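Q: I have two molecules that I believe assemble together. Could you output C-alpha coordinates for the complex as a whole instead of separate predictions?
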Amino acid sequence: MHLLTISQPNGKDLRTLCLRYDCNLLQIWAKRAGNGGDFTVIELEDVAYSYGGAELFAQLNLSLAPGSFHFLTGPSGAGKTTLLKLCYGELLATAGQVRLFGEDARSLERDGVAMMRRRIGVVHQDCQFLDHLPVAENIALPLKVAGREAEADGNLDDLLSWVGLKSQAGQTPPQLSGGERQRAALARAVIMSPDVIIADEPTGNVDWEMSQRLLTLLIELNKMGKTVLIATHDLNLIRTAKNQVSARVLRLTDRKLQLAGAEL
Amino acid sequence: MTLSAARVIAFVMGDPKADRAVPPTGFTARLTVFTAAAMAFLAVFALALSMATGRLADRWSEELARTSTLRISAPADQAAAQVQAAINVLETTPGVAAARALTADEQRSLLEPWFGPDLPIESLPIPQLIEIIEEGGGYDSAGLRARLLAEVPGAVLDDHTRWREPLVTAAGRLRSLGWFAILLIGAATAAMITLAAQSALAANAQVIRVMRLVGAEDAYIARAFVRRFTSRAFLGALGGTFLGMIAVALLPNGNDVGGFLTDVGFRGLGWIWPLCLPPLAAIVAFFATRAAALRTLKEQS
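A: Yes, here they are, computed for all two components at once.
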Protein backbone atom coordinates (compact mmCIF):
# COMPACT_ATOMS: atom_id res chain seq x y z
CA MET A 1 0.00 0.00 0.00
CA HIS A 2 1.39 3.37 -0.97
CA LEU A 3 -0.04 4.73 2.25
CA LEU A 4 3.15 3.77 3.99
CA THR A 5 5.27 5.99 1.81
CA ILE A 6 3.33 9.17 2.43
CA SER A 7 5.05 11.81 4.44
CA GLN A 8 3.83 15.05 5.85
CA PRO A 9 4.91 18.35 4.27
CA ASN A 10 6.94 19.16 7.35
CA GLY A 11 8.55 15.75 7.18
CA LYS A 12 6.55 14.09 9.94
CA ASP A 13 5.49 10.54 9.19
CA LEU A 14 1.84 10.35 8.33
CA ARG A 15 1.40 6.63 8.62
CA THR A 16 -0.44 6.74 11.93
CA LEU A 17 -2.77 9.41 10.68
CA CYS A 18 -3.35 7.60 7.40
CA LEU A 19 -4.13 4.33 9.08
CA ARG A 20 -6.54 6.06 11.43
CA TYR A 21 -8.34 7.75 8.63
CA ASP A 22 -8.14 5.10 6.01
CA CYS A 23 -11.29 3.23 6.92
CA ASN A 24 -12.75 3.60 3.46
CA LEU A 25 -10.11 2.31 1.09
CA LEU A 26 -10.65 -1.37 1.75
CA GLN A 27 -14.40 -0.83 1.68
CA ILE A 28 -14.11 0.86 -1.69
CA TRP A 29 -11.99 -1.97 -3.08
CA ALA A 30 -14.48 -4.46 -1.70
CA LYS A 31 -17.35 -2.60 -3.36
CA ARG A 32 -15.39 -2.41 -6.58
CA ALA A 33 -14.83 -6.15 -6.52
CA GLY A 34 -18.48 -6.77 -5.66
CA ASN A 35 -19.66 -4.63 -8.51
CA GLY A 36 -17.32 -6.00 -11.08
CA GLY A 37 -15.36 -2.77 -11.08
CA ASP A 38 -18.38 -0.68 -12.17
CA PHE A 39 -18.89 1.08 -8.85
CA THR A 40 -18.76 4.85 -9.03
CA VAL A 41 -19.00 7.22 -6.10
CA ILE A 42 -20.57 10.04 -8.10
CA GLU A 43 -22.30 9.62 -11.41
CA LEU A 44 -24.04 12.21 -13.58
CA GLU A 45 -26.15 10.90 -16.44
CA ASP A 46 -27.54 13.22 -19.14
CA VAL A 47 -27.66 15.98 -16.57
CA ALA A 48 -28.87 19.47 -17.40
CA TYR A 49 -29.11 22.52 -15.22
CA SER A 50 -30.94 25.77 -15.86
CA TYR A 51 -30.85 29.09 -14.03
CA GLY A 52 -34.10 31.02 -14.47
CA GLY A 53 -34.85 29.34 -17.77
CA ALA A 54 -31.36 29.73 -19.22
CA GLU A 55 -29.67 26.38 -19.65
CA LEU A 56 -26.19 26.31 -18.14
CA PHE A 57 -25.33 22.89 -19.49
CA ALA A 58 -27.10 19.84 -20.87
CA GLN A 59 -26.58 16.15 -21.66
CA LEU A 60 -23.69 16.10 -19.25
CA ASN A 61 -22.19 12.75 -18.23
CA LEU A 62 -19.58 12.14 -15.54
CA SER A 63 -18.43 9.15 -13.54
CA LEU A 64 -16.03 9.43 -10.63
CA ALA A 65 -14.49 6.10 -9.73
CA PRO A 66 -13.30 5.49 -6.19
CA GLY A 67 -9.78 6.74 -5.67
CA SER A 68 -9.74 8.76 -8.88
CA PHE A 69 -8.35 12.27 -9.23
CA HIS A 70 -10.05 14.78 -11.51
CA PHE A 71 -9.50 18.40 -12.35
CA LEU A 72 -12.43 20.40 -13.66
CA THR A 73 -11.53 23.41 -15.77
CA GLY A 74 -13.36 25.84 -17.97
CA PRO A 75 -13.94 29.54 -18.45
CA SER A 76 -15.58 31.64 -15.79
CA GLY A 77 -19.34 31.28 -15.85
CA ALA A 78 -19.20 27.90 -17.58
CA GLY A 79 -20.85 26.26 -14.59
CA LYS A 80 -17.97 24.62 -12.72
CA THR A 81 -19.29 25.57 -9.31
CA THR A 82 -22.80 24.51 -10.28
CA LEU A 83 -21.49 21.16 -11.44
CA LEU A 84 -19.67 20.68 -8.15
CA LYS A 85 -22.84 21.60 -6.24
CA LEU A 86 -24.69 18.92 -8.16
CA CYS A 87 -21.98 16.49 -7.11
CA TYR A 88 -22.54 17.07 -3.40
CA GLY A 89 -26.30 17.49 -3.42
CA GLU A 90 -26.40 21.24 -2.89
CA LEU A 91 -28.38 21.60 -6.13
CA LEU A 92 -30.70 19.24 -7.96
CA ALA A 93 -30.38 18.76 -11.71
CA THR A 94 -33.22 20.14 -13.80
CA ALA A 95 -32.94 17.08 -16.06
CA GLY A 96 -31.07 13.79 -16.01
CA GLN A 97 -29.94 11.83 -13.00
CA VAL A 98 -27.28 12.40 -10.37
CA ARG A 99 -26.33 9.36 -8.33
CA LEU A 100 -24.33 9.81 -5.15
CA PHE A 101 -22.89 6.52 -3.94
CA GLY A 102 -25.49 4.78 -6.06
CA GLU A 103 -28.44 6.75 -4.69
CA ASP A 104 -30.51 9.09 -6.83
CA ALA A 105 -29.90 12.57 -5.41
CA ARG A 106 -33.49 13.52 -6.22
CA SER A 107 -34.83 10.80 -3.97
CA LEU A 108 -32.82 11.93 -0.96
CA GLU A 109 -34.70 13.57 1.90
CA ARG A 110 -33.16 16.67 3.48
CA ASP A 111 -31.59 14.60 6.24
CA GLY A 112 -30.42 12.15 3.59
CA VAL A 113 -28.51 14.97 1.91
CA ALA A 114 -26.97 15.81 5.29
CA MET A 115 -25.84 12.21 5.68
CA MET A 116 -24.37 12.31 2.17
CA ARG A 117 -22.41 15.45 3.04
CA ARG A 118 -20.64 13.48 5.72
CA ARG A 119 -19.21 11.27 2.98
CA ILE A 120 -18.24 14.19 0.76
CA GLY A 121 -15.80 16.75 2.07
CA VAL A 122 -16.17 20.14 0.41
CA VAL A 123 -13.67 22.99 0.21
CA HIS A 124 -14.95 26.30 -1.14
CA GLN A 125 -12.92 29.11 -2.57
CA ASP A 126 -14.49 31.48 -0.04
CA CYS A 127 -14.06 29.20 2.95
CA GLN A 128 -16.84 29.84 5.42
CA PHE A 129 -16.46 29.08 9.10
CA LEU A 130 -18.21 29.75 12.36
CA ASP A 131 -16.23 32.88 13.04
CA HIS A 132 -16.87 32.93 16.79
CA LEU A 133 -15.36 29.48 17.33
CA PRO A 134 -11.63 28.64 17.41
CA VAL A 135 -10.08 27.00 14.37
CA ALA A 136 -9.80 23.64 16.17
CA GLU A 137 -13.52 23.60 16.94
CA ASN A 138 -14.33 24.59 13.38
CA ILE A 139 -12.27 21.74 12.02
CA ALA A 140 -13.89 19.29 14.45
CA LEU A 141 -17.39 20.55 13.61
CA PRO A 142 -18.26 17.70 11.20
CA LEU A 143 -17.44 15.15 13.92
CA LYS A 144 -19.49 17.11 16.40
CA VAL A 145 -22.64 17.27 14.28
CA ALA A 146 -22.26 13.57 13.51
CA GLY A 147 -22.11 12.77 17.22
CA ARG A 148 -18.53 11.48 16.89
CA GLU A 149 -16.87 14.27 18.83
CA ALA A 150 -14.83 11.79 20.86
CA GLU A 151 -12.90 10.86 17.72
CA ALA A 152 -11.52 14.38 17.58
CA ASP A 153 -9.52 13.80 20.76
CA GLY A 154 -6.86 11.68 19.11
CA ASN A 155 -7.00 12.90 15.54
CA LEU A 156 -7.42 16.63 15.71
CA ASP A 157 -3.87 17.38 16.82
CA ASP A 158 -2.45 15.18 14.06
CA LEU A 159 -4.69 16.79 11.49
CA LEU A 160 -3.78 20.30 12.63
CA SER A 161 -0.10 19.38 12.35
CA TRP A 162 -0.65 17.87 8.93
CA VAL A 163 -2.15 21.09 7.58
CA GLY A 164 0.36 23.18 9.51
CA LEU A 165 -2.15 24.93 11.74
CA LYS A 166 -1.29 23.54 15.14
CA SER A 167 -0.10 26.87 16.47
CA GLN A 168 -3.24 28.58 15.13
CA ALA A 169 -5.66 26.08 16.69
CA GLY A 170 -6.89 28.54 19.28
CA GLN A 171 -7.31 31.44 16.92
CA THR A 172 -10.62 32.34 15.32
CA PRO A 173 -11.01 32.10 11.53
CA PRO A 174 -10.97 35.88 10.96
CA GLN A 175 -7.45 35.88 12.42
CA LEU A 176 -6.17 33.47 9.73
CA SER A 177 -4.59 34.37 6.41
CA GLY A 178 -6.14 33.25 3.12
CA GLY A 179 -3.87 30.24 2.84
CA GLU A 180 -4.44 29.24 6.43
CA ARG A 181 -8.18 29.43 5.90
CA GLN A 182 -7.89 27.18 2.86
CA ARG A 183 -5.88 24.65 4.84
CA ALA A 184 -8.36 24.83 7.72
CA ALA A 185 -11.20 24.24 5.25
CA LEU A 186 -9.33 21.25 3.85
CA ALA A 187 -8.77 19.84 7.32
CA ARG A 188 -12.48 20.27 8.08
CA ALA A 189 -13.36 18.56 4.83
CA VAL A 190 -11.28 15.48 5.59
CA ILE A 191 -11.75 15.04 9.34
CA MET A 192 -14.69 12.70 8.78
CA SER A 193 -12.53 10.65 6.43
CA PRO A 194 -14.95 11.19 3.56
CA ASP A 195 -14.94 9.05 0.46
CA VAL A 196 -14.86 12.07 -1.82
CA ILE A 197 -13.19 15.47 -1.56
CA ILE A 198 -14.55 18.23 -3.73
CA ALA A 199 -12.63 21.49 -3.87
CA ASP A 200 -13.82 24.61 -5.67
CA GLU A 201 -10.87 26.80 -6.65
CA PRO A 202 -8.99 25.83 -3.48
CA THR A 203 -5.94 27.80 -4.57
CA GLY A 204 -7.80 30.83 -5.86
CA ASN A 205 -6.90 33.11 -2.96
CA VAL A 206 -3.40 31.92 -2.15
CA ASP A 207 0.10 32.43 -3.50
CA TRP A 208 1.98 29.87 -5.60
CA GLU A 209 3.84 28.32 -2.71
CA MET A 210 0.68 27.85 -0.70
CA SER A 211 -1.18 26.48 -3.71
CA GLN A 212 1.57 23.84 -4.08
CA ARG A 213 1.20 22.92 -0.45
CA LEU A 214 -2.57 22.56 -0.77
CA LEU A 215 -2.15 20.49 -3.92
CA THR A 216 0.27 18.24 -2.09
CA LEU A 217 -2.28 17.72 0.66
CA LEU A 218 -4.97 16.82 -1.86
CA ILE A 219 -2.65 14.42 -3.66
CA GLU A 220 -1.79 12.76 -0.37
CA LEU A 221 -5.46 12.32 0.37
CA ASN A 222 -5.95 10.77 -3.06
CA LYS A 223 -3.13 8.38 -2.32
CA MET A 224 -5.03 7.37 0.80
CA GLY A 225 -7.84 6.29 -1.49
CA LYS A 226 -10.01 9.37 -1.48
CA THR A 227 -11.70 10.44 -4.66
CA VAL A 228 -10.71 14.00 -5.46
CA LEU A 229 -12.43 16.49 -7.74
CA ILE A 230 -10.90 19.96 -8.01
CA ALA A 231 -12.38 22.83 -9.98
CA THR A 232 -9.70 25.24 -11.07
CA HIS A 233 -8.71 27.48 -13.95
CA ASP A 234 -5.08 27.40 -12.84
CA LEU A 235 -3.34 25.36 -15.58
CA ASN A 236 0.00 25.62 -13.81
CA LEU A 237 -1.50 23.82 -10.86
CA ILE A 238 -2.69 21.03 -13.14
CA ARG A 239 0.71 20.76 -14.80
CA THR A 240 2.42 20.57 -11.43
CA ALA A 241 0.18 17.71 -10.44
CA LYS A 242 1.22 15.88 -13.59
CA ASN A 243 4.29 14.30 -12.07
CA GLN A 244 2.69 13.37 -8.79
CA VAL A 245 -0.64 11.77 -9.51
CA SER A 246 -2.62 10.06 -12.21
CA ALA A 247 -5.29 12.65 -12.88
CA ARG A 248 -7.85 13.34 -15.55
CA VAL A 249 -8.72 16.84 -16.67
CA LEU A 250 -12.31 17.63 -17.53
CA ARG A 251 -13.17 20.78 -19.39
CA LEU A 252 -16.58 22.36 -19.11
CA THR A 253 -17.18 24.60 -22.06
CA ASP A 254 -20.02 25.37 -24.46
CA ARG A 255 -22.43 23.61 -22.12
CA LYS A 256 -20.57 20.33 -22.57
CA LEU A 257 -18.11 18.40 -20.43
CA GLN A 258 -15.14 17.01 -22.32
CA LEU A 259 -12.04 15.11 -21.40
CA ALA A 260 -9.19 17.53 -21.99
CA GLY A 261 -6.34 15.61 -23.62
CA ALA A 262 -4.70 12.52 -22.36
CA GLU A 263 -4.31 11.51 -18.79
CA LEU A 264 -1.76 13.75 -17.15
CA MET B 1 -34.48 2.93 30.54
CA THR B 2 -36.62 2.14 27.54
CA LEU B 3 -35.62 3.24 24.07
CA SER B 4 -38.55 5.62 23.76
CA ALA B 5 -37.71 7.32 27.07
CA ALA B 6 -34.09 7.63 25.98
CA ARG B 7 -35.19 9.20 22.72
CA VAL B 8 -37.42 11.68 24.51
CA ILE B 9 -34.58 12.68 26.83
CA ALA B 10 -32.20 12.96 23.87
CA PHE B 11 -34.78 15.11 22.07
CA VAL B 12 -35.07 17.48 25.01
CA MET B 13 -31.43 17.54 26.05
CA GLY B 14 -29.77 17.28 22.64
CA ASP B 15 -26.09 18.02 22.32
CA PRO B 16 -25.23 20.09 25.40
CA LYS B 17 -22.70 22.03 23.33
CA ALA B 18 -24.80 22.38 20.21
CA ASP B 19 -25.72 25.97 20.99
CA ARG B 20 -22.06 26.97 20.75
CA ALA B 21 -22.57 26.93 17.01
CA VAL B 22 -24.76 30.01 17.39
CA PRO B 23 -22.89 33.25 18.13
CA PRO B 24 -23.55 34.06 21.78
CA THR B 25 -24.36 37.74 21.48
CA GLY B 26 -26.69 39.86 19.46
CA PHE B 27 -29.86 41.89 19.52
CA THR B 28 -32.12 38.84 19.58
CA ALA B 29 -30.43 37.62 22.76
CA ARG B 30 -31.27 40.81 24.62
CA LEU B 31 -34.76 40.91 23.08
CA THR B 32 -35.55 37.39 24.23
CA VAL B 33 -34.29 37.92 27.75
CA PHE B 34 -36.17 41.21 28.06
CA THR B 35 -39.38 39.79 26.61
CA ALA B 36 -39.32 36.77 28.89
CA ALA B 37 -38.57 38.95 31.92
CA ALA B 38 -41.32 41.47 31.16
CA MET B 39 -43.87 38.79 30.40
CA ALA B 40 -43.01 36.84 33.54
CA PHE B 41 -43.33 40.04 35.60
CA LEU B 42 -46.81 40.65 34.16
CA ALA B 43 -47.73 37.01 34.59
CA VAL B 44 -46.88 37.19 38.30
CA PHE B 45 -49.40 40.01 38.69
CA ALA B 46 -52.01 38.24 36.59
CA LEU B 47 -51.50 35.17 38.74
CA ALA B 48 -51.76 37.20 41.94
CA LEU B 49 -54.94 38.86 40.66
CA SER B 50 -56.40 35.54 39.67
CA MET B 51 -55.63 33.98 43.02
CA ALA B 52 -56.96 36.98 44.95
CA THR B 53 -60.24 36.95 43.03
CA GLY B 54 -60.43 33.22 43.58
CA ARG B 55 -60.09 33.71 47.30
CA LEU B 56 -62.67 36.50 47.19
CA ALA B 57 -65.17 34.39 45.28
CA ASP B 58 -64.65 31.48 47.66
CA ARG B 59 -65.07 33.69 50.71
CA TRP B 60 -68.20 35.37 49.43
CA SER B 61 -69.67 32.06 48.39
CA GLU B 62 -68.80 30.44 51.69
CA GLU B 63 -69.79 33.23 54.08
CA LEU B 64 -72.89 34.50 52.35
CA ALA B 65 -74.21 31.11 51.40
CA ARG B 66 -74.28 30.07 55.07
CA THR B 67 -76.22 33.03 56.44
CA SER B 68 -79.40 34.94 55.82
CA THR B 69 -81.35 37.68 57.56
CA LEU B 70 -84.93 38.01 58.71
CA ARG B 71 -86.27 41.55 59.09
CA ILE B 72 -89.24 42.13 61.40
CA SER B 73 -91.15 45.36 60.88
CA ALA B 74 -93.90 45.64 63.46
CA PRO B 75 -95.43 48.20 65.81
CA ALA B 76 -93.39 48.62 68.99
CA ASP B 77 -95.89 46.81 71.20
CA GLN B 78 -95.93 43.75 68.88
CA ALA B 79 -92.26 43.61 67.99
CA ALA B 80 -91.09 41.33 70.79
CA ALA B 81 -93.94 38.87 70.19
CA GLN B 82 -93.28 38.75 66.46
CA VAL B 83 -89.56 38.25 67.00
CA GLN B 84 -90.25 35.37 69.33
CA ALA B 85 -92.76 33.87 66.92
CA ALA B 86 -90.25 34.14 64.09
CA ILE B 87 -87.53 32.48 66.17
CA ASN B 88 -89.94 29.69 67.05
CA VAL B 89 -90.65 29.17 63.36
CA LEU B 90 -86.97 29.20 62.50
CA GLU B 91 -86.04 26.77 65.25
CA THR B 92 -88.43 24.23 63.80
CA THR B 93 -87.28 24.74 60.20
CA PRO B 94 -85.04 22.01 58.78
CA GLY B 95 -81.71 23.39 57.52
CA VAL B 96 -81.56 26.19 60.09
CA ALA B 97 -78.75 25.64 62.60
CA ALA B 98 -79.37 28.72 64.72
CA ALA B 99 -81.37 31.90 64.75
CA ARG B 100 -80.92 34.91 67.03
CA ALA B 101 -82.08 38.47 67.18
CA LEU B 102 -79.34 41.04 66.86
CA THR B 103 -78.78 43.16 69.94
CA ALA B 104 -79.29 46.92 69.90
CA ASP B 105 -75.53 47.41 69.93
CA GLU B 106 -75.06 45.14 66.93
CA GLN B 107 -77.76 46.98 64.98
CA ARG B 108 -76.19 50.29 65.96
CA SER B 109 -72.81 49.21 64.67
CA LEU B 110 -74.38 48.21 61.37
CA LEU B 111 -75.85 51.71 60.98
CA GLU B 112 -72.82 53.52 62.29
CA PRO B 113 -71.10 53.99 58.91
CA TRP B 114 -74.11 55.96 57.69
CA PHE B 115 -75.42 57.71 60.83
CA GLY B 116 -72.35 57.87 63.00
CA PRO B 117 -72.01 56.73 66.64
CA ASP B 118 -74.50 57.43 69.44
CA LEU B 119 -77.53 56.83 67.27
CA PRO B 120 -80.60 56.64 69.59
CA ILE B 121 -81.69 53.41 68.02
CA GLU B 122 -84.24 52.64 70.76
CA SER B 123 -86.27 55.71 69.87
CA LEU B 124 -86.34 55.03 66.14
CA PRO B 125 -88.71 52.71 64.30
CA ILE B 126 -85.94 50.46 63.04
CA PRO B 127 -86.82 46.90 62.07
CA GLN B 128 -85.43 44.11 64.23
CA LEU B 129 -82.95 41.86 62.44
CA ILE B 130 -82.66 38.12 63.06
CA GLU B 131 -79.51 36.35 61.88
CA ILE B 132 -80.05 32.86 60.52
CA ILE B 133 -77.17 30.37 60.39
CA GLU B 134 -77.76 27.52 57.99
CA GLU B 135 -76.61 23.93 58.14
CA GLY B 136 -76.35 21.04 55.71
CA GLY B 137 -77.96 21.85 52.39
CA GLY B 138 -79.71 24.92 53.84
CA TYR B 139 -83.43 25.51 54.23
CA ASP B 140 -86.29 25.67 51.77
CA SER B 141 -86.62 29.44 51.39
CA ALA B 142 -90.02 29.27 49.58
CA GLY B 143 -91.50 27.07 52.31
CA LEU B 144 -90.05 29.27 55.07
CA ARG B 145 -91.46 32.40 53.43
CA ALA B 146 -94.93 30.79 53.30
CA ARG B 147 -94.78 29.85 56.99
CA LEU B 148 -93.56 33.30 58.00
CA LEU B 149 -96.31 34.95 55.99
CA ALA B 150 -98.86 32.98 57.93
CA GLU B 151 -97.37 33.30 61.40
CA VAL B 152 -95.26 36.51 61.34
CA PRO B 153 -96.86 38.89 58.81
CA GLY B 154 -94.26 41.62 59.32
CA ALA B 155 -91.24 39.37 58.51
CA VAL B 156 -89.16 39.75 55.37
CA LEU B 157 -86.65 37.01 54.60
CA ASP B 158 -83.43 38.05 52.83
CA ASP B 159 -81.37 34.99 51.87
CA HIS B 160 -78.69 37.21 50.20
CA THR B 161 -79.30 35.56 46.85
CA ARG B 162 -80.04 38.85 45.17
CA TRP B 163 -76.63 40.32 45.70
CA ARG B 164 -74.57 37.25 46.53
CA GLU B 165 -74.89 35.63 43.13
CA PRO B 166 -73.76 38.64 41.06
CA LEU B 167 -70.79 39.15 43.37
CA VAL B 168 -69.75 35.51 43.19
CA THR B 169 -70.26 35.55 39.42
CA ALA B 170 -68.18 38.72 39.11
CA ALA B 171 -65.41 37.27 41.24
CA GLY B 172 -65.45 34.07 39.20
CA ARG B 173 -65.20 36.03 35.99
CA LEU B 174 -62.33 38.09 37.37
CA ARG B 175 -60.56 34.85 38.20
CA SER B 176 -61.19 33.56 34.67
CA LEU B 177 -59.91 36.83 33.27
CA GLY B 178 -56.75 36.44 35.32
CA TRP B 179 -56.12 33.00 33.86
CA PHE B 180 -57.00 34.25 30.39
CA ALA B 181 -54.46 37.06 30.86
CA ILE B 182 -51.82 34.45 31.76
CA LEU B 183 -52.69 32.50 28.61
CA LEU B 184 -52.44 35.68 26.54
CA ILE B 185 -49.10 36.49 28.12
CA GLY B 186 -47.91 32.97 27.26
CA ALA B 187 -49.11 33.32 23.67
CA ALA B 188 -47.52 36.76 23.34
CA THR B 189 -44.27 35.36 24.74
CA ALA B 190 -44.37 32.53 22.22
CA ALA B 191 -45.04 34.99 19.39
CA MET B 192 -42.21 37.32 20.37
CA ILE B 193 -39.74 34.49 20.88
CA THR B 194 -40.77 33.08 17.50
CA LEU B 195 -40.03 36.44 15.87
CA ALA B 196 -36.72 36.69 17.70
CA ALA B 197 -35.80 33.14 16.65
CA GLN B 198 -36.66 33.86 13.02
CA SER B 199 -34.62 37.02 13.20
CA ALA B 200 -31.70 35.08 14.68
CA LEU B 201 -31.97 32.42 11.98
CA ALA B 202 -31.94 35.10 9.29
CA ALA B 203 -28.99 36.84 10.92
CA ASN B 204 -27.07 33.58 11.18
CA ALA B 205 -27.45 32.47 7.57
CA GLN B 206 -23.71 31.81 7.37
CA VAL B 207 -23.83 29.61 10.45
CA ILE B 208 -26.61 27.57 8.87
CA ARG B 209 -24.71 27.31 5.56
CA VAL B 210 -21.61 26.05 7.34
CA MET B 211 -23.58 23.60 9.47
CA ARG B 212 -25.29 22.21 6.40
CA LEU B 213 -21.99 21.98 4.55
CA VAL B 214 -20.53 19.76 7.25
CA GLY B 215 -23.53 17.45 7.27
CA ALA B 216 -25.71 18.79 10.09
CA GLU B 217 -29.31 17.66 9.98
CA ASP B 218 -32.11 20.19 10.38
CA ALA B 219 -32.90 18.89 13.86
CA TYR B 220 -29.30 19.49 14.96
CA ILE B 221 -29.25 23.05 13.59
CA ALA B 222 -32.66 23.76 15.10
CA ARG B 223 -31.49 22.37 18.43
CA ALA B 224 -28.57 24.76 18.49
CA PHE B 225 -31.00 27.68 18.32
CA VAL B 226 -33.60 26.04 20.55
CA ARG B 227 -31.14 25.50 23.37
CA ARG B 228 -29.94 29.08 23.16
CA PHE B 229 -33.44 30.58 23.16
CA THR B 230 -34.79 28.22 25.80
CA SER B 231 -32.02 29.09 28.22
CA ARG B 232 -32.42 32.81 27.52
CA ALA B 233 -36.19 32.63 28.06
CA PHE B 234 -35.71 30.70 31.29
CA LEU B 235 -33.17 33.16 32.68
CA GLY B 236 -35.24 36.17 31.60
CA ALA B 237 -38.41 34.72 33.11
CA LEU B 238 -36.54 33.86 36.30
CA GLY B 239 -35.49 37.48 36.70
CA GLY B 240 -38.95 38.80 35.82
CA THR B 241 -40.63 36.40 38.22
CA PHE B 242 -38.25 37.30 41.01
CA LEU B 243 -38.92 41.01 40.54
CA GLY B 244 -42.67 40.39 40.24
CA MET B 245 -42.74 38.42 43.47
CA ILE B 246 -40.86 41.18 45.27
CA ALA B 247 -43.33 43.74 43.92
CA VAL B 248 -46.31 41.64 45.03
CA ALA B 249 -44.77 41.08 48.44
CA LEU B 250 -44.39 44.84 48.85
CA LEU B 251 -48.10 45.47 48.20
CA PRO B 252 -50.07 46.61 51.29
CA ASN B 253 -51.54 43.78 53.36
CA GLY B 254 -55.24 43.01 53.04
CA ASN B 255 -57.59 44.49 55.61
CA ASP B 256 -61.26 45.23 56.00
CA VAL B 257 -60.95 48.82 54.89
CA GLY B 258 -58.87 48.17 51.76
CA GLY B 259 -60.91 45.14 50.81
CA PHE B 260 -60.11 43.40 47.55
CA LEU B 261 -57.55 45.87 46.22
CA THR B 262 -55.23 45.33 49.16
CA ASP B 263 -55.77 41.59 49.10
CA VAL B 264 -53.98 41.06 45.74
CA GLY B 265 -51.09 38.71 46.36
CA PHE B 266 -50.17 35.19 47.33
CA ARG B 267 -50.91 33.39 50.56
CA GLY B 268 -49.01 30.45 52.03
CA LEU B 269 -48.33 27.75 49.46
CA GLY B 270 -49.68 30.11 46.80
CA TRP B 271 -46.14 31.54 46.60
CA ILE B 272 -45.12 28.33 44.83
CA TRP B 273 -47.30 29.12 41.83
CA PRO B 274 -45.19 31.98 40.41
CA LEU B 275 -42.13 29.72 40.62
CA CYS B 276 -43.75 27.65 37.87
CA LEU B 277 -43.48 30.59 35.45
CA PRO B 278 -39.75 30.30 34.46
CA PRO B 279 -39.99 26.60 33.52
CA LEU B 280 -43.25 27.37 31.72
CA ALA B 281 -41.55 30.18 29.77
CA ALA B 282 -38.72 27.78 28.89
CA ILE B 283 -41.22 25.20 27.62
CA VAL B 284 -43.01 27.85 25.55
CA ALA B 285 -39.66 29.05 24.16
CA PHE B 286 -38.56 25.48 23.41
CA PHE B 287 -41.57 24.66 21.26
CA ALA B 288 -41.88 28.13 19.69
CA THR B 289 -38.21 28.21 18.67
CA ARG B 290 -38.18 24.64 17.45
CA ALA B 291 -41.24 25.19 15.26
CA ALA B 292 -39.82 28.47 13.92
CA ALA B 293 -36.39 26.98 13.28
CA LEU B 294 -37.62 23.89 11.46
CA ARG B 295 -40.01 25.97 9.38
CA THR B 296 -37.33 28.50 8.49
CA LEU B 297 -34.77 25.82 7.63
CA LYS B 298 -37.29 24.14 5.37
CA GLU B 299 -38.07 27.42 3.65
CA GLN B 300 -34.38 28.24 3.21
CA SER B 301 -33.60 24.97 1.46
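A: One point stands out. Chain B touches chain A at residues 15, 17, 20-21, 23-24, 206-207, 209-220, 298, 301 (CB under 8 Å).
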